[in-house]
Amino acid sequence: MIKLRKDLKLRTKKKVRIKDNCWTMPGGGFLNPGTVVFVTSGPTRISDVPFQVLTGTGQITHRHVAGETIREIEDGSSGFFFSEGHKTSSPYDFGTLDTEYFEEIT
What global pTM score does this model have? Predict the structure, then answer.
């Protein structure tokens, strides 16, 4: 397990599900293998941990009242939370990531 913390850099080992940072209608998406992400700040009150994509690709679906918008994730994209492979135990907890999905890089 990888203990999450601010300013941690990670690489996806395989396709991994993520979610966007919309509080009322969160959408889902994925990151492709080899995508490098950076933990940008601390966890929310429900232990969602935000990150930015440094390099790599994926796709995110933004949900809204009029329907859904699918957007490609590119280098520098932000506004995402960990989902698949992320475990937390309490509010405001960074939690851990499963090494099946992520690897820490320097």
Answer: 0.92
